[in-house]
Please model this.
Amino acid sequence: MSDTILEARRLTKEFKGFTAVREVDLKVARGSIHALIGPNGAGKTTCFNLLTKFLEPSSGSILFNGHDITRERPAQIARRGIIRSFQISAVFPHLTLLENVRLGLQRALGTSFHFWKSERSLLSLNDRARALLADVGLEDLADEQTVNLPYGRKRALEIATTLAMEPELMLLDEPTQGMGHEDVHRVAELIKRVSKGRTILMVEHNMSVVSTIADTITVLQRGAVLAEGPYDEVSKNPQVMEAYMGSTEGQLQGAHA
Model:
């Protein structure tokens, strides 16, 4: 099997004459954490939406495990094992943590809409759901209503529900956005922990997170790839440094601090 799990070839998206993503070539290595970064307006979100099929490309192609998925719908690529976690926490607030994860497990089994089945039939999923909650450090809160969780813990729960669908490729959209320093560190550690045996592609604005956990970084500017490589290499690239100067996201240098 190829070392490349996801590949974009000359991926382009135009909106009424404006080119948001311009001929992007991207290769995500199997088993890696790959970060997509760039200043505000660089095209990160548009590119991410193209890769997850929430937008159709104007031109170019997308391959997953060597299969062309360019024209497939989001539900089709989810069945292939590409699962996206959203920028805004996508969990059910009035269900317990256990129930949220169990729904993810049901979806993976293809029984999501079997409403006529008794709740007892779901109890067999509880052990697996509790194990997933343990993976993200939430096992003690299994029976808590999700609405009562602080924001950072909701993001951890969202990662657990994403894991429940057994992704081969996890796509994380700004996983630490809006978090305080302590939650950022906790979620970064969590992403690193759950990445074992999986591939993760993430859009992330926090350079301390990217510098700590990403194996490869692709930098976008004005919709095109500006640079790519490990953090130490990319952070010293003069073009990348210039692109980030004055950016609200901060300079790349000193991100470890």
